[in-house]
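To illustrate the input format used throughout this study, we show a single complete record. The first block contains the structure-token representation of the backbone; no residue identities are included at this stage. The design step must infer an amino acid for every position from geometry alone.
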């Protein structure tokens, strides 16, 4: 009987383990997880396409359907954990402090999987943390709860005023109403490096509160932007903010990618998946993790059944087929997906940067400065702002595509084939 040991019972780890068990119920799977309760408490957007190519088991597919769209991470965790347990996957509370020890403690394991998130110990120790990393943007993440339901402001008819009156570009993310009759709202405020310095010590575990003491620590223009958005959302949507729920954290939006995702070490095979393998911002990381997990589960099954795969090679017009291990194919696919997704993330960063700059120009053109009382913005002002922004974004996106990637169509098509095939 084969045995697979996984570090981390986050959504991607559980999703990989479930599929592997469905492909071969005889495989023993043990997941070692640091916390009894999953720590992340945000809402994520899951695309239906991320579940394409997942195991066709009808019960599993019904569960996945219930997770499409905007969903709290807690719900994903609970449903996947429950399903994993019904399949006989063992989840043990244990913090892994050394991968060498882990390998020694499980001499009968055929394969180890690092699904232990962005700060993966498996990536650090086994893969020597060799990775490429680039900071794309600085963000203040403002999270709060409102009573009852809420929604994002309409870009066409409602968001003009707050965008023009505030000092930064702001993007909203609103979850579904929860069982406690509250809805989570997230405002992402895009900052420059100097403004970010004032909130860099505030993180998800120790965020700033919306109190006068913490407001004094923050950049005054950022405070003003948050005030504008809270006020405008209250005015337009009637948001009733739950007392004491506003939390502000500083976030650096990075793209990173482990150089390798499959390695042999301590006489064992190790693979990375999810945030441990690569991460991109703008609500894509979990989706990418799921897409890669669909591939990994199949390739582990093939590896444990000693199957081999072929790849087409060509040199100077001579074509031939070469045998490779299924995990090598997984590795190649992850690299292709990561390359495409980081290209798209850089494009989005460029677009958002340009949009922010054009909003600043529009504010100047309309004589809106940070000290005046920001009343209604005229229709002419709205048109000017969006005309400038659209022209700027279009031009810069075009430039960025050519600068980032000399052959954008080729890469895009290649990866599309890989991801959605
Ligand atoms: C505010 C916010 C919003 C987001 N929104 C989206 C979105 O809309 N769409 C999207 O696709 N992505 C989104 N993401 C990203 C998404 O949350 C992550 O990509 C996803 O959680 C990664 O899952 P994972 O299983 O790879 O890692 P994690 O969720 O980080 O899970 C890793 C698990 O490993 C455990 N672990 C770590 N180290 C050890 C150890 N040494 N020993 C034992 N266990 C260990 C951890 O406790 C954890 O349970 C968002 C992220 C944030 C912060």
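Output of the design step:
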């Amino acid at each position: 009987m084969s045995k697979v040991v996984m570090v981390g019972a986050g959504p991607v780890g559980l999703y990989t383990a479930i599929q592997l068990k469905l492909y071969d119920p005889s495989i023993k799977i043990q997941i070692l997880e640091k916390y009894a309760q999953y720590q992340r408490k945000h809402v994520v957007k899951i695309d239906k396409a991320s579940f394409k190519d997942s195991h066709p088991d009808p019960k599993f597919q019904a569960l996945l359907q219930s997770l499409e769209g905007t969903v709290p991470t807690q719900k994903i965790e609970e449903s996947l954990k429950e399903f994993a347990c019904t399949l006989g996957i063992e989840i043990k509370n244990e913090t892994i402090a050394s991968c060498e020890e882990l390998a020694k403690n499980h001499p009968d394991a055929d394969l180890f999987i690092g699904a232990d998130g962005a700060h993966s110990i498996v990536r650090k120790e086994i893969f020597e943390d060799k990775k490429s990393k680039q900071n794309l943007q600085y963000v203040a993440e403002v999270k709060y709860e409102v009573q009852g339901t809420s929604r994002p402001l309409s870009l066409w008819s409602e968001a003009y005023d707050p965008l023009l009156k505030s000092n930064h570009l702001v993007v909203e993310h609103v979850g579904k109403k929860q069982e406690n009759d509250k809805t989570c709202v997230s405002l992402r405020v895009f900052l420059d490096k100097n403004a970010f310095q004032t909130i860099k010590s505030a993180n998800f575990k120790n965020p700033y509160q919306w109190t006068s003491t913490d407001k004094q620590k923050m950049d005054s223009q950022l405070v003003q932007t948050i005030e504008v958005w809270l006020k405008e959302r209250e005015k337009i949507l009637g948001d009733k903010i739950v007392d004491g729920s506003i939390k502000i954290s500083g976030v650096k939006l990075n793209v990173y990618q482990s150089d390798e995702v499959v390695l042999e070490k301590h006489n064992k095979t190790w693979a990375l998946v999810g945030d441990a393998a690569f991460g991109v911002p703008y609500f894509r990381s979990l989706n990418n993790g799921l897409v890669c997990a669909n591939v990994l589960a199949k390739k582990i099954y093939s590896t444990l059944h000693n199957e081999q795969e072929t790849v087409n090679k060509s040199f100077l017009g001579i074509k031939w087929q070469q045998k490779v291990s299924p995990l090598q194919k997984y590795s190649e696919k992850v690299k292709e997906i990561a390359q495409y997704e980081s290209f798209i993330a850089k494009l989005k960063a460029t677009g958002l940067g340009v949009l922010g700059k054009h909003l600043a120009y529009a504010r100047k053109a309309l004589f809106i400065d940070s000290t005046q009382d920001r009343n209604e913005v005229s229709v002419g002002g709205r048109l000017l702002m969006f005309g400038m922004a659209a022209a700027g974004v279009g031009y810069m996106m075009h430039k960025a595509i050519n600068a980032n990637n000399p052959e954008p169509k080729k890469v895009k098509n290649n990866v599309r084939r890989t991801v959605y095939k």
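Structural context for interpreting the output: The first helix runs from residue 11 to 23. The chain has a mean pLDDT of 88.
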